[in-house]
Amino acid sequence: MPADSDGDRTRGLPPLPQTWRPLGARIVGIVLGLGLFVICAVSWVTFGAETRAKFTPFQRGTVIALGMLIAAVMYALLRSRAEAHRDRLVVVNGYKRREFDWPEILAVHMPPGAPWATLDLADGTTVSVMGIQGSDGERARRAVRDLRTLVAASSSPGS
Question: Do 149 and 85 share a structural domain?
Fold first, then answer.
């Protein structure tokens, strides 16, 4: 194989590795999570000693457990991403991580109004890609174009 043939094949492709993360959802998650924490902390501090003493250990534990549950959901949302590598695509949706070799991916879709991109796979299934969210507008459309370019390059002869 000539030394420059690999360079010809990768011309016009986005630089790899490439990671796409949802911007709007991450901002909302961080702002709401911090806001909820601040409101709860300020409320607790501003309660009088008499009011704080009325809370039982079970009630305090329930509030702490609820806070931890909310934090776990926010963390799952914040870690969603798609990572394109030379040999594979890694999709992380919440706490689930899946890896796909490029030939497994047939198409990438994100119709207008769709919440996130989806992948059509060779086995006939589809997979959501929550790392590319439709609410991000042009940023999401650019990510889908880049992903489609990578999928097309993997299915071209000589790849």
Answer: yes
